């Protein structure tokens, strides 16, 4: 393979730039050319394709977001859109593609691979919800952003002796809430993977209060319900007044952590190696601290499992 393409797609995540840099530098190191595709699959259809040299990915390893921009593209879900995309890549002499994104982006990559155009998926999403990998690029940065917010909210919660409900992202995965809840010392974590017991939550709040706890932090994953709904529940059932904080899009931005940059570098490089071997339809991931590659179908047929030992432990530690 002499020329490859790279794009970022779906929701952006900190560390996507570090992955892009790794793809470009690794490929050039092995005497390949790299074309950058702007705006995800939309840009592929529209031919927003430019050559990337070593310098074009300089000074981005530390930047959040994605230099190639991202987009959601309905047309690409159609056969016609996919054929247009392949046509564009042929026109530019591109023989293989690295797709950095979430599971939706993987489906697009698989569609191209099924049509004979090899693609490799690199998991970039703050949600950590891609089956087959222990971690995705962006999760660690988002987690640290949430922790910083929890620490700040805790200061005001303590000063005013308040119960705070903090809503975090994660779509249908509770990972961000779980890890943030444990690391932030939250009294309660509410995640989609575990049904919550309101009575249990209330009795924990009461017993904490009785032994002199000055505040309580409840982390609610967006996949369960929004924080205002949860606040209503507590008010209705126990007349508990709470304050709500919805962290929102700050979780998607910011300088990637060292851990995300290392993950992105490892994943980007492995993706290029797979294309060099002439392989397609694979996803890159991390399992037990080892970089792995596996069939992309596993990534959307499988189910992501949150680590529920964290859930159990956080309950034990927040008595
Ligand atoms: P993410 O990659 O973060 O999960 P999306 O689910 O929005 O984000 O997917 C990103 C893009 O991938 C979509 O806008 C679309 O262009 C493409 N895509 C998603 N699902 C499919 C599919 N089933 N077939 C082809 N392309 C898809």
From TrEMBL:
InterPro entries: ATP_PFK, ATP_PFK_prok-type, PFKA_ATP_prok, Phosphofructokinase_CS, Phosphofructokinase_dom, PKF_sf. It is found in: Cytoplasm. Substrate binds at residues 125-127, 162, 169-171, 222, 243, 249-252. Residues 3-274 form the Phosphofructokinase domain. The keyword Transmembrane does not apply. The active site is at residue 127. ADP binds at residues 21-25, 154, 185-187, 211, 213-215. GO terms for cellular component: 6-phosphofructokinase complex. ATP binds at residues 11, 72-73, 102-105. It is an enzyme of class 2 (transferase). It catalyses: beta-D-fructose 6-phosphate + ATP = beta-D-fructose 1,6-bisphosphate + ADP + H(+). Its cofactor is Mg(2+). GO terms for molecular function: 6-phosphofructokinase activity; AMP binding; ATP binding; fructose-6-phosphate binding; identical protein binding; metal ion binding; monosaccharide binding. PROSITE patterns: PHOSPHOFRUCTOKINASE. It comes from the Bacteria. Catalyzes the phosphorylation of D-fructose 6-phosphate to fructose 1,6-bisphosphate by ATP, the first committing step of glycolysis. This is ATP-dependent 6-phosphofructokinase. The gene is pfkA.
């Amino acid at each position: 393979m002499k020329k490859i393409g790279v794009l970022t797609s779906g929701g952006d995540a900190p560390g996507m730039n570090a992955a892009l840099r790794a793809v470009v530098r690794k490929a050039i190191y092995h005497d390949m050319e790299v074309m950058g595709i702007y705006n995800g699959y939309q840009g592929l259809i529209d031919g927003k394709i430019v050559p990337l040299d070593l310098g074009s990915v300089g000074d981005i390893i530390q930047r959040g977001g994605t230099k190639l921009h991202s987009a959601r593209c309905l047309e690409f879900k159609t056969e016609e859109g996919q054929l247009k995309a392949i046509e564009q890549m042929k026109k530019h002499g591109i023989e293989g593609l690295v797709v950095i994104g979430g599971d939706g982006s993987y489906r697009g990559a698989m569609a191209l691979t099924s049509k004979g155009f090899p693609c490799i998926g690199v998991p970039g999403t703050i949600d950590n919800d891609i089956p087959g990998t222990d971690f995705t690029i962006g999760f660690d940065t988002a987690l640290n952003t949430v922790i910083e917010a929890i620490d700040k909210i805790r200061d005001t919660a303590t000063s005013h002796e308040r119960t705070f409900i903090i809503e975090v992202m994660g779509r249908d995965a509770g990972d961000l809430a779980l890890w943030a809840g444990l690391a932030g010392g939250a009294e309660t974590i509410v995640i989609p993977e575990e049904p919550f017991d309101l009575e249990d939550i209330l009795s924990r709040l009461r017993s904490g209060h009785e032994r002199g706890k000055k505040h309580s932090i409840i982390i609610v994953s967006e996949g369960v319900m929004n924080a205002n709904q949860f606040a209503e529940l507590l008010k209705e059932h126990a007349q508990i007044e709470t304050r709500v904080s919805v962290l929102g899009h700050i979780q998607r931005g910011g300088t990637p952590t060292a851990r995300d940059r290392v993950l992105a570098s490892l994943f980007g490089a492995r993706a290029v190696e797979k294309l060099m071997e002439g392989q397609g339809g694979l996803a890159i991931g991390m399992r037990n601290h080892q970089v792995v590659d596996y069939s992309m179908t596993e990534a959307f047929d499988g189910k992501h499992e949150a680590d529920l030992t964290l859930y159990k432990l956080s309950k034990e530690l927040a008595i």
